[in-house]
Amino acid sequence: MSLLLLNEDELRQIITITEGMETIKQAFTASAEGRMNMPGNFALHFPQVAGQVNVEGTYFSQSPYYVIKIDSNFKGNTAINLPTQSGVLMVFDAATGFPAAIMVDNGYLTNIKIGAAGALAAHCLANPQIRKVAIIGAGKQAFVQLKSLTVVRKMETVWVWDASPLKADNYVRHMVEDHDLNIRIAPSPQAAVEQADIVIAAAESRQPLIKAEWLKPGAHITSSALHHHPVKHNLAADVWQRADVIIVDDLAQCIQYGELYHAQRAGIIQHVDIDGELNSLISGKLQGRSHPGQITLADITGLGAHDTALATLALEKALFSGLGQRLEGGFHLRALGTGVGHLL
Predict the structure, then answer these.
(1) Are residue 160 and residue 290 in the same domain, yes or no?
(2) pLDDT of residue 331
(3) Distance CA 306, CA 104 (A)
(4) pLDDT tens-digit map of 200-220
(5) pLDDT band for position 194 (50/70/90)?
(6) What residues are paired with 276 via a beta bridge?
(7) H or E element: which one contains 265?
(8) Most buried of the four, 16, 69, 139, 285, by CB within 10 Å?
(9) How far apart are CA 117 and CA 152, in angstroms?
(10) Residue 286's CB: how many other CB atoms inside 10 A?
(11) What is the mean pLDDT of the segment spanning 143-164?
């Protein structure tokens, strides 16, 4: 039996944001229907190099594959000019348990899944007609969140702010090249957020950057963060207090890693204040916005099961298109009770 090896460049060729969004939508629906098996994860810590490795496995009922994901974050890598994030997904045949593929995505599929979840939240919660979008932060999630948002909403103007003017300038140049957007650099978070119909909070900040008094009636806020990574802080406490509808992608996870961590720890938000999870909203079991003037908030951290959904799609598309490198796994099958010996 052979093993398919796919790298990040090949995954970028076969998984688009639009396809990823549809796949993540189906995964949320499967979760709402109880077809997701995600028993949990464990972590390895390397304090001497500020490193952490997280391992988790997921499986959807009736799926041909299950996936084990290894996600690494080593802050010390910056000192040796290496990326801090790396990731590997191992795909196994659900009928036999044999490995089918190894995907070295370096966080690409992770970013796609969180971007897709953020856009789906905006699609369900934001007002249908929007004009202005505010992007707070200019890192990877800021890129994928806006790219994903363009799939579900048309917009007139995008304002971006980042603590690093160089990063903000780079963000504008790349987004203008990739999309037909009127995008500008804001002088401050307040200037970006005021009058925005949708606010994307994606800055890697340890201090709150967005205040409730800046939000216009009817605004939607999407806060995105990578789970299993250090908790970021974009939203001031009064944002949670002003929000009329609060949705999370996973309550337990958001309490531990999302913006919700800060609000709950400060006693501002309790479990009963959360209106529900995104899977119930997408499946129609939960109502979101009920009035155009409401302020809505979605806290997104990314579900491990969604890596499984994207990896399954990637494997099927790679096999169809002939992408990837095939490695001989060295597995030997024996004919049971025949004495035939090795068949491969």
Answers:
(1) yes
(2) 54
(3) 16
(4) 999 988 889 999 999 999 999
(5) very high
(6) 247
(7) helix 260-265
(8) 69
(9) 12
(10) 17
(11) 96
- The count of residues in the chain is 344
Q: 53 lies in which domain range?
A: 2-109+304-328
**Mean pLDDT confidence for 85-97:** 92
Q: Are residues 162 and 67 in the same domain?
A: no
Cα torsion 153, 154, 160, 166: sign: positive
Residue 336 falls within a domain, yes or no?
no
The two structure tokens encoding residue 76: 């010390």
User: How many Å apart are CA 235 and CA 208, to the nearest integer?
Assistant: 5
Q: Residue 44 to residues 90, 102, 308: CA-CA distances in angstroms?
A: 18, 21, 21
HSE toward the beta carbon, residue 119, CA cutoff 13 A:
29
Q: What is the H or E stretch that residue 37 is in? A: strand 36-37
Q: What is the model's pLDDT at position 21? A: 94
- Give the count of domains, the chain: 2
Q: Are residues 166 and 286 in the same domain?
A: yes
**Two tokens at 254?**
């958001």
Among 308, 279, 265, 235, which residue's Cα sits nearest to residue 121? Answer: 279
In a domain, 339, yes or no: no
Whole-number Å distance between alpha carbons of 205 and 271: 24
At 85 the pLDDT is 81
DSSP type of residue 235: B
pLDDT at 71: 87
Task: Choose among 171, 199, 196: nearest CA to 185.
Answer: 171
Give me 316's structure tokens. 């099927």
Q: Residue range 292-309: average pLDDT?
A: 94
Say yes or no: 209 and 219 in one domain. Answer: yes
Is 308:67 a contact under the CB 8 Å cutoff? Answer: yes
